[in-house]
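Internal tracking record. Fields below are filled automatically when a chain is submitted to the structure queue. Please do not edit lines marked as system-generated. If the sequence contains nonstandard residues, flag them in the REMARKS field before resubmitting.
Queue: standard
Priority: normal
Entity type: single polypeptide chain
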Amino acid sequence: MSKSEHDARAATGRGAEAHYERPWYRSAAAVLAGRNMRGLRCLDLCAGNAEFAEILRDRFAMQVTCADYAPAHLAHQASLGFDTWTVDLDADSAEVDRVAQTRAGTFDLVVSLATIEHIFDSDNFLRLCHTVLKPDGLLLVNTPNIAFAGYRLYSSFSGNRPFGEGHHVRFWDFRFLRTNLFLNGFRVAEDARRFHALPNDTLTRAFRGRPTAAAAVAWLFHACAFLQHLPGGRQWFADELTVLAQKEAAYPIGFSLGRVQALLAQLHGRPEAAAAVQRLREARRCGWLDEHLVLANVVDQLPP
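SYSTEM-GENERATED OUTPUT FOLLOWS
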């Protein structure tokens, strides 16, 4: 089964029941409420069953466009009265860029929740967000924190496989997300990661379907509500990454090694080249490429 076939079947199944109390919805809504963000023109990217699009419209008075590529999702979004936009983020880069240009500079805010972990080419995803936002526009993105202690425990019982493997195709902690955002033209404006829920489902899977044992161990994770406030605690004890990032006037050079090398060659001699190189060097100076050895070496070899 192809990814598009999988996603189409999942979209049909999700349409059967709405869920408005997901942890990532609560986390994102808290960021919007805390900044009194109302009445904006907003893109809900990979809007799915449109639950959060309804929250954006009804609670925050936003003018919402829903983007997706699953026909069942798009039909459901349209039935709720939303403007819809067909976007396939797994298409080739040239096609994603072409589609993005049709809405360039349109939105004040892009919201994308529990999506980036499902996208093969995260540069495509972030570059599209950068293109469709107005200058200084905001991106609110959410994804599971793979560094969370509950997911680490799952992995230790599951042959070191990450939680969500086979369903998620990319895995994110704050450091990796921040680096990808920065190299695609964004700077983090608010780090809103926090602990939301006991990992009952995660540990039931880790303990091979033993819910009583899982619940007993999951109960201990109540301590995360306190531990997340210790220095460095959110890295281990926040289960959700929710980040608000601001678009900067920077060329989205990207994180993927092949894309970075190709764009450096393409930009050679153009005004954007110096800004792209400066962006890469700033990431290197901040230490954000230290574990990405090949990309770090490419940056180190750039001519002065």
